[in-house]
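Good morning,

Attaching, inline, the backbone tokens for the sequence recovery test we're adding to the shared suite. The designed sequence is right after.
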């Protein structure tokens, strides 16, 4: 379908904001642009509390109610492995907590290039294990565990789920992925079709991969590029939402099909008319809000 008019309005608003030279750009400069976030009235919840995890990682707990034994949804933010904070994804986590009925914990994993692959993936794995161990303290039911993330955070959610399975850790009941990064090759048709002009651009992704892997192109590693993993049948029930106008669309959808072929239970939804990042744009775009509500309903069902 045509680009959603609210997405077009956001693209018009962002025009020029990311006119950056990715051949010379450093991470600090990029973060000064990318981590500003979008202003809006905070969604009210019963509790929002700062946490510290092992290795001094920051985290934030969102409780939609004071009820004990809520399901646990561990969230990993996007930002190309380089940017993103607890604050940039605060609104999204609040909305997920309210709509799913789960206690959401957003994890501030270490960022590239200061911490390169596989450091952030290991952070997300260890954070999930620790949060499960601290379930009683946090007042959550860790037997009802889900992982979720957007973009690079979707990549790290997949990595954490696979490491949990490989190392005999707690098994999530659900995995929710918004337009995840799944393939470092950056060679799909959607990369060519949406290389420029739709918020996330091909040159940005090439730069992100250089920061995360230390070079790009780089030797293939399936923990970084889960599209090429051979153990996708071990994934928990998974929802993957791609965005129609997104360079990552094809690799995300290919990942969903490959995981399904390997035996995993996968629901694939293409968010029509949407651009990369639409889950965070829910306050400004009714169709984006509807897709977020659909994802939340799926999570609620799988955590029941």
């Amino acid at each position: 379908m045509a680009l959603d008019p609210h997405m077009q309005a956001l693209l018009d608003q962002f025009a020029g904001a990311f006119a950056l030279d990715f051949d010379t750009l450093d991470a600090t400069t990029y973060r000064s642009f990318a981590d500003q976030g979008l202003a809006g009235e905070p969604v009210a919840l019963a509790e929002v509390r700062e946490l510290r995890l092992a290795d001094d990682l920051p985290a934030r707990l969102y409780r939609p109610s004071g009820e004990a034994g809520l399901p646990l949804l561990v969230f990993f933010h996007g930002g190309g492995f380089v940017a993103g904070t607890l604050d940039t994804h605060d609104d999204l986590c609040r909305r997920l907590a309210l709509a799913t009925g789960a206690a959401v914990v957003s994890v501030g994993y270490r960022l590239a290039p200061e911490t390169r692959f596989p450091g952030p993936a290991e952070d997300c794995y260890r954070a999930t294990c620790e949060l499960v161990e601290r379930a009683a303290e946090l007042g959550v039911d860790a037997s009802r565990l889900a992982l979720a993330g957007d973009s690079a955070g979707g990549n790290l959610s997949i990595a954490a789920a696979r490491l949990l399975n490989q190392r005999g850790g707690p098994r999530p009941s659900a995995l929710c992925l918004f337009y995840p990064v799944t393939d470092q090759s950056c060679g799909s048709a959607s990369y060519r079709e949406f290389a420029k002009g739709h918020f996330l651009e091909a040159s940005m992704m090439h730069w992100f991969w250089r920061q995360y892997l230390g070079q790009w192109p780089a030797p293939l590693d399936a923990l970084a590029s889960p599209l090429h993993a051979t153990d996708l049948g071990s994934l928990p029930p998974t929802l993957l939402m791609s965005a129609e106008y997104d360079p990552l669309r094809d690799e995300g959808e290919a990942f969903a099909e490959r995981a399904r072929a390997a035996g995993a239970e996968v629901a694939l939804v293409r968010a029509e008319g949407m651009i990369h990042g639409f889950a965070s744009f829910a306050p400004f775009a009714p169709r984006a809000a509807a897709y977020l509500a659909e994802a939340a309903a799926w999570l609620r069902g799988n955590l029941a």
